[in-house]
Amino acid sequence: MPPAPSFPGRTHSMTRLLLACSATLARLLPGRLAYALARAVSALFWAADDARRQAVRANLARVAPERTPAEREALARRMFATFAESVVDAWRTGEVTIEGGERLTDALAEGHGVLLWSAHLGNWELAAEALARSGLDVSALARAHTDKDLEHYMDDRRRAAGVRIVGRCPLGREARRVLRAHGLLALLGDRRFGVGGRAVPFFGTLARLPAAPIALARRTGAALVPGFVVRTAPGRYRVQLEPPVPTTTGRALEALAAVLERYVRAHPEQWFVFEPVWDESA
């Protein structure tokens, strides 16, 4: 399940209440009613969280500059609503198909491990679970969440689905161990793991993306495979694995940004990044 944006000043007890209520309602209500309720909740988030609202507006101004301000405003609202519906899909365990899965298995067969580079697009939690169900031994590196109750809950859910959490730092010992043991390590590379990052062209302007995953792939010799998941219909998702990106040319991060740009351009309402991406592009 994608981590939910929080109300300002939300307490941990409210987190637990929201999780319990959303899980129960999503499973018990008919799908149509569950989605309607999710959209209503998304409208509350839209009204309550000015920081994330402004961040989404700023990001969409870069992603869709050809649209009018009114069109981008509608797109921003639709992003909040789509995010809420994707949470319902996670609770109801939506249907996921995998395309290009041989790119992962072929890369794993080379015996150097695979770093699966993805983004906050579609429903990445369902994608990881689907890969685990397909028979792959999936480890994931997750960015730390400010709400520790939510973080612990998500980690428990991932483990129950067969996805092992190996830490929060791309260059951490556990992450290196997975790849050196010829395993599969998945991470989301469109938001930085703390400070740093490297500026690369992204939608015509420099944006800072984390460079540590590239360094990790180079140090371990792992294949670097981009892969993304998009929502194709209510409750249905498609995981698309792209060809491996070479890590020896010094342009790997630029290549990843270009692939990500293609997916975000096609599905801007599914790019769930609620913080500014172009805030430090120097």
Helix-strand blueprint:
Layout lengths: L11 H17 L2 H18 L1 H14 L5 H24 L2 E5 L1 H9 L4 E5 L5 H10 L4 E4 L6 H13 L2 E3 L7 H8 L3 E5 L9 E5 L2 E5 L2 H9 L2 E11 L2 E6 L10 H15 L16
Parallel strand pairs: 1-9, 2-5, 2-8, 3-4, 3-5
Antiparallel strand pairs: 6-7, 8-9
Would you mind describing this structure in some detail?
- This protein is of the alpha/beta class.
- It is 49% helix and 17% strand.
- The strands form two sheets. Strands 1-9-8-2-5-3-4 form a seven-stranded mixed beta sheet, with helices on both faces.
Give a brief outline of the structure.
This protein has ten helices and nine strands. The chain has 282 residues and is of the alpha/beta class. The two termini are 33 Å apart.
Total number of strands = 9
Structural class: alpha/beta
Sheet of most strands: 7 strands, mixed
Overall pLDDT confidence: 88
- Report the helical percentage: 40-55%
Question: Radius of gyration from the CA trace?
Answer: 18 Å
Order of helices and strands: HHHHEHEHEHEHEEEHEEH
Low-confidence segments, ≥5 residues, pLDDT <50?
A: 3-11
What would you call the shape?
globular
Strand proportion, as a percent range, falls in: 15-25%
Spatial strand arrangement across the major sheet: 1-9-8-2-5-3-4
Secondary structure tally, helices: 10
Could you tell me how far the N terminus lies from the C terminus, measured between alpha carbons in angstroms? 33 Å
